[in-house]
Design brief:
heterodimer; A: alpha/beta; Rossmann fold; B: Rossmann fold; 2 domains; two-stranded antiparallel ribbon
Chain lengths: 322, 362
């Protein structure tokens, strides 16, 4: 399965299993989304459960709040990362707060899905990585899978979560990675990172589309005799401190890889965690291989902005040689 | 006055020529010279040729995603004939012909869709804003410019554009409301081309039409046949006169059809029929205007020759865009701030160190 198919399969399973699940957004119904993630679902479950909404992100999310607190489990789509912002007011002011505001009287079991990230030669607003914006909001869970298998298991967990979840899908690898994925139902726990490769010299933490770039960089690292431990964060919030602590106590070195802008980012948070959890074990300053603090350039400039395996290796080597 | 006669609440539509180019409302036929008509047709033809070529460059892999304009030329060129040099244009992203009329070049359009921000740095069109992708967010900007104009007691007008889908966004209603309250000189045009990507207008609204949305905001609104050059020309004349003389904003719904895909990444066959497309082809704006000119005996040009000439011009503009100065690291950093923060300078230097390391490695 590709990631597109795996996400479609997860939605299919939950729509079949739980009559409270509804799926909607712009172009989600008839054509099955601009990336065809929801393809075939309207045909299978009807236009009452899988449907096109008017073009209005704020109302898509706002109506989701109303549905969620009255017993449905909406899975809504923001068509692109950069188009999620009209709904930001609903997310920060209501989605994330309703449970706390009502002292637990209302729950918001909704999922807001959107494709994110650059590297596809898109026009403006189609290449953004806003995970830090969403992770900074108390009351949300934020997920970004790196494989079809994880996307499926995490999305099912997200739909079953009684708390609201931001589900970020790395569009660059929507179809780039194929993997054997069971068509049966399975879940992956939210909040648990995964050690993809064990190593001893340096811990590399990444998520989403950057995992593949890290794995390519690790080929170069291996040639240079560097043993890398690669951790896939999978859930950005709640962040898995424990897995990071254990790894850093072993390697003493941290390199964070993410394509978002560097300052005030997930990278910043991971370095804070390194200091809080493993200060006495650190043997080199932690480093961030991340986007510049600039707007992600249009297609011609992406080659400077996007994180390449070579750049990851460059930072790994620097950290190890410190 | 056309705004009274064509009451959107009664779903009336302004139309001057029919699909065969015959005048159905001679009493409303605008004052316009034969030369202007012929030149307008040529401009529509140029837009169409340029647009077709843009799609074909994309298909050849020489350009990234592009949103075609085909079928909506009458709206653009009618506005282009009325808009003045000091008027502002606040576009969405499907108004190429009007952008050209305001002095934007195809080279700039190509540069933009080829992934270079310099394509938004219009050298000869200081009062045209960049193409605006986040749906509807441009409308409040137009209202703000309208406020500046009113504040400075100028007679300029702002032309701004949105699609049918965009009318569902909050910014659409908020902008129209502000415009009504402030009575600013803004002409809002909804290019109702029937689809927001795959979603038909019937999914966007339960209103009888889109022009009727003006009623709630207390501003004049009118539904116009957007494939009828003369109807669009007349409405822009009346609307700009209205706005220019301090009478406030106008909302125009231009009924048209997006003949092409939403963008080159889209496949309309998945959500609409060939029959529907064929039906709309009968009201093609170029065909109708050409018929009109033929009836009147004012069309004496060789269209094929014109097409060839325009193709060559567009090709040259495209080559100029392709051969534009290569994108540099400076292009990523240097426009972020008027005064670049030290931290950003450091990030640029660090990247240059990486590039040096990379160079030595090979």
């Amino acid at each position: 399965m590709t990631m597109v198919q795996a996400i479609n399969n997860a939605l299919d399973i939950k729509l079949a299993e739980d009559g409270n699940v509804v799926v909607y957004g712009e172009d989600v119904g008839v054509v099955g989304g601009v990336f065809r993630v929801t393809e075939g679902l309207q045909k299978k479950y009807g236009a009452e459960r899988v449907f096109d909404s008017p073009l209005a992100e704020s109302a898509i999310v706002g109506t989701g709040v109303g549905m969620a607190l009255s017993g449905l489990r909406p899975v809504v789509e923001m068509q692109f990362d950069g188009f999620s912002y009209p709904a930001f007011n609903q997310v920060i002011s209501n989605v994330s707060r309703m449970h706390n505001r009502s002292r637990g009287r209302f729950r918001i079991p909704m999922v807001i899905r959107f494709p994110y990230g650059g590297g596809i030669n898109a026009i403006e607003h189609h290449s953004e990585s806003p995970e830090a914006l969403y992770s900074h909001i108390p009351g949300l869970k934020v997920i970004a899978p790196s494989t079809p298998h994880d996307a499926k298991g995490l999305l099912i967990s997200a739909i079953e979560s009684d708390d609201p979840v931001i589900f970020m899908e790395p569009k660059r690898i929507y179809r780039a990675i194929k993997q054997e994925v069971s068509t049966d139902k399975f879940t992956i726990p939210i909040g648990k990172a995964k050690v993809l490769t064990e190593g001893t010299d340096v811990t590399v933490v990444a998520f989403g589309a950057m995992i593949r770039e890290c794995q390519r960089a690790m080929v170069m690292a291996k040639e240079a005799g560097i043993s890398v431990e690669l951790i896939d964060l999978r859930t950005i919030y709640p962040i898995d401190r424990e897995t990071i602590r254990v790894s850093l106590q072993k390697t003493g070195r941290l390199v964070v890889v993410a394509e978002a802008q560097r300052s005030f980012s997930v990278g910043s948070e991971l370095i804070a965690i390194a200091n809080e959890e493993a200060f006495l074990h650190l043997e080199a300053p932690p480093r961030r291989v991340m986007g510049f603090d600039t707007i992600i350039p249009l297609a011609q400039g992406e080659k400077y902005f996007m994180i390449t395996p070579e750049r990851i290796f460059y930072e790994i080597e620097k950290t190890v040689k410190f | 006055m056309i705004f009274e006669e064509f009451n959107p609440s009664e779903d009336k539509m302004l139309k001057i020529i029919d699909n065969d180019g015959r005048v159905v409302r001679p009493d409303l036929f605008p004052e316009i010279s034969d030369d202007t008509i012929v030149e307008a047709y040529k401009a529509m033809l140029f837009e169409r040729v340029a647009d077709e070529m843009a799609v074909s460059f994309q298909r050849q892999g020489r350009m990234f995603t592009y949103p075609p304009n085909k079928g909506q030329e009458a709206i653009h060129i009618a506005a282009g004939n009325v808009i003045r040099e000091n008027d502002w244009l606040v576009p969405a992203f499907r108004e190429v012909g009007l952008m050209l009329a305001k002095g934007v070049t195809m080279k700039e359009i190509f540069l933009y869709y080829n992934g270079n921000e310099q394509g938004s740095n219009f050298k000869n069109a200081p009062r045209v804003l960049p193409i605006n992708v986040p749906i509807g967010t441009q409308l409040p900007h137009a209202v703000g410019i309208g406020y500046s104009i009113k504040y400075r007691k100028k007679e300029d007008v702002v032309f701004t554009y949105i699609g049918d889908g965009g009318t569902s966004e909050g910014d659409f209603s908020e902008a129209l409301n502000f415009a009504g309250v402030w009575q600013v000189p803004v002409i809002f045009t909804i290019q109702n081309n029937q689809y927001a990507i795959s979603v038909p207008v019937s999914t966007q609204t339960n209103s009888v039409n889109l022009a009727v949305k003006s009623v709630a905001f207390g501003i004049p609104g009118i539904k116009v046949d957007g494939n009828d050059f003369f109807a669009m020309y007349l409405v822009y004349q009346k609307a700009s006169e209205h706005a220019r003389t301090g009478k406030g904003p106008v909302l125009i719904e231009a009924l048209t059809y997006r003949c092409g895909a939403h963008t080159t990444s889209d496949d309309p066959s998945r959500y609409r029929t060939k029959e529907e497309e064929a039906e709309w082809e009968l009201s093609d704006p170029l065909f109708r205007l050409k018929k009109f000119m033929e009836h009147k005996g004012i069309w004496k040009e060789n269209e094929e020759k014109l097409r060839e000439k325009y193709k060559k011009e567009v090709e040259q503009q495209f080559l100029d865009a392709e051969n534009f100065t290569p994108y540099s690291l400076e292009d990523v950093f240097d426009y972020m701030y008027v005064e670049m923060p030290d931290d950003l300078k450091k990030q640029k230097e660090e990247y240059q160190q990486f590039l040096a390391w990379k160079g030595n490695r090979k």
